[in-house]
Structures are given as structure tokens and as C-alpha cells.
């Protein structure tokens, strides 16, 4: 499942640099996560790094983008990370 940043985000910049898939970007009001790039850090880490660094816990699972571990791994393998 991709992750989602809620409107509780305070734009602290902590998550932006932590995303190995470059899925997090600055949206109009808050940071956002591109569900096409988010793999919950599968392929890089054991757990999502954005969740670990978020000081206010405003990142959650995105119910609109449910994916299995295998689907997330396949997405990771299809990404071209620079």
C-alpha cells in the first residue's frame, strides 16, 4: 500500500530527504506522496523511513492504493532511481 501524508503535515522537511524513491514532493499546501513511486521503502529498507522521521505522525497508509508486498517489490524493480 502506498503511503499518504495527511493535512496535519507541518512542512518540516524531515520526510523529503528520507525517501529513497523520490516519491515525496512539495504540494500546494503540504508535502505529498506520489503513489506511483511509493514502495513503503521496500527494496531499500525494512520499514518506511518517512514514518520513522515524521515528528507528528501525519503519514499513514493510503487506502486508495492497496498493494501487496510483492506488488510493492515489483514497483520498486520498475522504478529508475537516480
TrEMBL record:
Domain 4Fe-4S ferredoxin-type: 1-29, 31-64
NCBIfam families: di_4Fe-4S_YfhL (NF033683)
InterPro entries documented for this protein: 4Fe4S_Fe-S-bd, 4Fe4S_Fe_S_CS, YfhL-like
Protein's UniProt name: 4Fe-4S ferredoxin-type domain-containing protein
Pfam families recorded: Fer4_10
GO terms, molecular function: iron-sulfur cluster binding; metal ion binding
Keyword tRNA-binding assigned: no
Keyword Transmembrane helix (UniProt): no
Keywords for this protein: Iron, Iron-sulfur, Metal-binding
Gene3D superfamilies: 3.30.70.20
Amino acid at each position: 500500500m502506498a503511503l499518504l501524508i495527511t493535512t496535519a503535515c507541518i512542512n518540516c522537511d524531515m520526510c523529503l530527504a528520507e525517501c529513497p524513491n523520490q516519491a515525496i514532493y512539495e504540494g500546494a499546501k503540504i508535502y505529498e506522496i506520489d503513489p506511483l513511486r511509493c514502495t513503503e521503502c521496500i527494496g531499500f529498507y525494512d520499514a518506511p523511513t518517512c514514518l520513522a522521521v515524521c515528528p507528528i505522525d501525519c503519514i499513514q497508509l493510503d487506502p486508495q492504493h492497496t498493494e501487496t508486498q510483492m506488488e510493492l517489490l515489483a514497483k520498486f524493480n520498475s522504478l529508475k532511481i537516480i
